[in-house]
Amino acid sequence: MVPLLLVLLLALILFGAGFALKILWWIAIIVLVVWVLGFVVRPTAGGGKRGRWYRW
C-alpha cells in the first residue's frame, strides 16, 4: 500500500510541476510579445526623435 501511495504522490507532484511550468512558459511568451511591441510602438520625444517606452 505504501509504494502505491508514493507512486500516486509522485505522479501528483510531477503533474503539478508540469502544469506550473506550462503556465510559466505562457507568461514568458506574453512578456516577450509586450517587450517587442514596446520597441515598435514607441512614443515620439521632443524634436521628432523616438523616445524610450520604459521609465528607467
Plain-language structure description:
The protein is an all-alpha fold and 56 residues long. Helix content is 70%, strand content 0%. It has 1 helix and no strands.
Quickly list its features.
single chain; 56 residues; mainly alpha; 1 helix; rod-shaped
Short description:
By secondary structure, the protein is an all-alpha fold. It is 70% helix and 0% strand.
What is the global morphology? rod-shaped
One letter per element, helices H and strands E, the order comes to: H
Q: What separation lies between the terminal Cα atoms?
A: 58 Å
Mean pLDDT: 77
Instruction: Estimate what percentage of residues fall within beta strands.
Output: under 5%
Uncertain segments are none
Largest sheet: none
The value of Rg in angstroms is 22 Å
Q: Strand tally, please? A: 0
Number of helices: 1
Q: Structural class, please?
A: mainly alpha
Q: Work out the helicity level.
A: 55-70%
What is the secondary structure topology, with strand pairs?
Blueprint (H helix, E strand, L loop, with lengths): L1 H39 L16
